[in-house]
Amino acid sequence: MPLFNKESIEEIKKKLKVWEEETIKNDISKYPERLPEFRNISGIVLKRFYTPVDLENYDYFEKLGFPGEYPFTRGIHATMYRGRIWTMRMFSGYGSPEYTNERLKFLLKHGETGLSLAFDFPTLLGLDADDPLSHGEVGVVGVSVSSLKDMEVIFDGIPMDQVTTNMTINPPAPVLLSFYIAAAEKQGVKPEQVGGTTQNDNLKEFFAQKSYVFPPEAGLKISLDVIEYSAKYLPKWNPISISGYHIREAGGTALQELAFTIADGIEYVRAGIKRGMDVDLFAPRLSFFFAAGTDLFEEVAKFRAARRMWAKIMKEKFNAKKTRSMWMRFHTQTSGVALTAQQPENNIVRVAIQALAAVLGGTQSLHTNSFDEAWALPSEKAAKIALRTQQILAYESGAADVVDPLAGSYYVEWLTDKMEEEAWKIIDRIEHVGGMVEAIKRGIPQREINDSAYKFQKEVENKQRIIVGVNEFIEDEKLEIPLLRFNQEEVEKHQIERLRKVREMRNSSSVEWSLKELKNAAQRNENIMPYVLKAVKVYATLGEIMNTLKEVYGEWVETPLF
Amino acid sequence: MGGNTSVLSAQEEVVPKRRIKVLVAKLGLDGHDRGAKVVARALKDAGMEVVYTGIRQTPEQVVNAAIQEDVDAIGISILSGAHMALIPRVMELLKERGMDDILVTVGGTIPTDDIKKLKSIGVAEVFIPGTPLSEIIEFIKKNVKRKTA
């Protein structure tokens, strides 16, 4: 049943025509518009304004429904933030496990409601702190973790049955998850009690975050191993966070982020089913991760379209029966690349708008970036302001008091539909070549993201897009803000020393045996998770486990394109 | 063009202007290659010859590539924060190989204090996020020291 009756639509159309011929013509002759054409980041051309005519034949229940009901456009929960505010989950971690332990406790003390670990590059790539390639990188962009010992220190004094932890980790996800399970067990917390998320989205690594290690097929296989294992043994764990955030950071548009992320999601679900798993046993624990840019309406439309699309895919394409399988639960991070090195305090305002977009878009958890993002890891003060921004949104703005408050805006509903329509076209193209693994091998998402990144930069150069403080309203400023500083060399030494002690105290024949077992399991194409967990418990290191897996799966080498 | 060069002036015939050749290098372990690729494309559009290394390059690999490709300039992109550990090594290796006439510029998230330090060891310029592409292009054109000049 259409939302607007035919007569009203006809009436509006008639008057709109008059408006276009009279009102607008007079107006434009006096006040020409700023641009010949207005486009959002996704390249969608925007009209001056929207009316019910843009929602002709709009079916309320098909497109929106009620909160907590299919197709979940309005939110996955019936009460949304009236019941519980989103989880305020600040991505944090730097230097040594000791420093990070301190930062986590600081954030918890100031009202953070979930933890999110940032690892350093060696950890992200599965290298031990004492690997020659790790030199200079240990502890720099996140915490250094090479063995179970490091994880024990990170969670020292933090009860692991009372916090949930997100770990941004991809190819080494089975290893870090095993560190987490084993550290929890040392605290007396059982695997079925641990809650949190491993990013474990290996597909997007090849065209977005670029911390790939194994080739795409092996990456997909390992992601599935974690999904399968979690479905059996870790009922509170989200084994994967299918991520659009990095697609955006790499230069993709909001539309590409939406489409590629869902295309990745389709690939994971298809692979899970192919493995013989029941879709309703693993789909409820799949989670997603998006960026929030500064164009409020485009972002809100993206989030709403994403939820609706995923619900349709799960129901219609994969025949999911459980409601939870159709839920797109997602974490949001405000966009890092949207923040500027120039006039950095302005970033506080950008983050507030982006965070508002995430809230109006119905996110389940949120990380707000710190205003010093374009310079360094967040200082304590900057991280606290970012957290306070969320608290202001939650308790002062009113945005959390009514579910899906932008619904029914002619513009937002039109744009939600438009984003969905355009995203399907991209997804169809990916599916047409055989899915995301094949598309990656052909360099399709890589090239498309490169093109968008370059186009965006050109628009900034030409001032088609204004960025305050960067290409307009520029100040001659002294670029000095207090940054987080720590002695990296000392952290590196400390981590190498701890690793040496771990290697010294452990039973090396158990380690060798566990690695051999792991290798055999990988060769037999078994799920590697149980073997990784065993190896971790006898203090096999991250690098040792990853090297063992590299022997079986090989390593991905990218053809550099620009 | 064939052999018909009569439309060219004598000078143009004798000294054909060689294009500036730049190595765009992603040093260190970070995969943030958006900036490197955008800059690489802009330099190419500005008429330069560009070689892009791809991600995760060590100082040794960068210097070897620069020598092998016989470049006039290296644009190092690094957003991992490991710049103070890795860039000095690049400069050292260039010096050892007698290639310190190659123009070295850096782009990335580099704190102000470190910019000063990098310049003191021979980095010609550090471009922070938000630097216009035109500024990078102009800088390289003006400052290359090798045979193109």
What does the secondary structure layout of this molecule look like, with pairings?
The complex is a heterodimer of chains A (562) and B (149).
Chain A: H1 6-21, H2 23-30, E1 38-39, E2 45-46, H3 60-63, E3 87-92, H4 97-109, E4 114-117, H5 121-124, H6 148-154, E5 164-167, H7 173-186, E6 195-198, H8 216-233, E7 237-238, E8 240-243, H9 245-249, H10 254-274, H11 279-282, E9 286-292, H12 296-317, H13 323-326, E10 330-334, H14 346-360, E11 365-367, H15 380-395, H16 410-432, H17 436-441, H18 444-461, H19 488-505, H20 508-523, H21 529-537, H22 542-553
Parallel strand pairs in A: 3-4, 3-11, 4-5, 5-6, 6-7, 8-9, 9-10, 10-11
Antiparallel strand pairs in A: 1-2
Helix pairs in contact in A: 4-6, 6-7, 7-21, 10-12, 10-16, 12-14, 12-16, 14-15, 20-21, 20-22
Chain B: H1 10-14, E1 21-26, H2 34-45, E2 49-52, H3 59-69, E3 73-78, H4 83-96, E4 103-108, H5 112-120, E5 125-127, H6 133-143
Parallel strand pairs in B: 1-2, 1-3, 3-4, 4-5
Helix pairs in contact in B: 3-4
Helix content of chain B: 40-55%
Major sheet of chain B: size, sense and barrel closure?
5 strands, parallel
Task: Return residue spans of chain B where pLDDT drops below 50 for at least 5 consecutive residues.
Answer: 1-14
Structural Rg of chain B: 16 Å
Q: Look at the structure and give the CATH class of chain B.
A: Alpha Beta
The radius of gyration computed from the alpha-carbon positions of chain A, rounded to a whole number of angstroms, is 24 Å
Structural class of chain A: alpha/beta
Q: Can you tell me the CATH superfamily of chain B?
A: Cobalamin-binding domain
Greatest contact pair?
A-B, 45 and 36 residues
Going by CATH, the architecture of the largest domain in chain A would be Alpha-Beta Barrel
Strands in their spatial order, largest beta sheet of chain A: 7-6-5-4-3-11-10-9-8
Count the beta strands of chain B.
5
Structural class per helix/strand content of chain B? alpha/beta
What is the arithmetic mean of pLDDT of chain A?
96
User: Can you say what the CATH homologous superfamily of the largest domain in chain A is?
Assistant: Methylmalonyl-CoA mutase
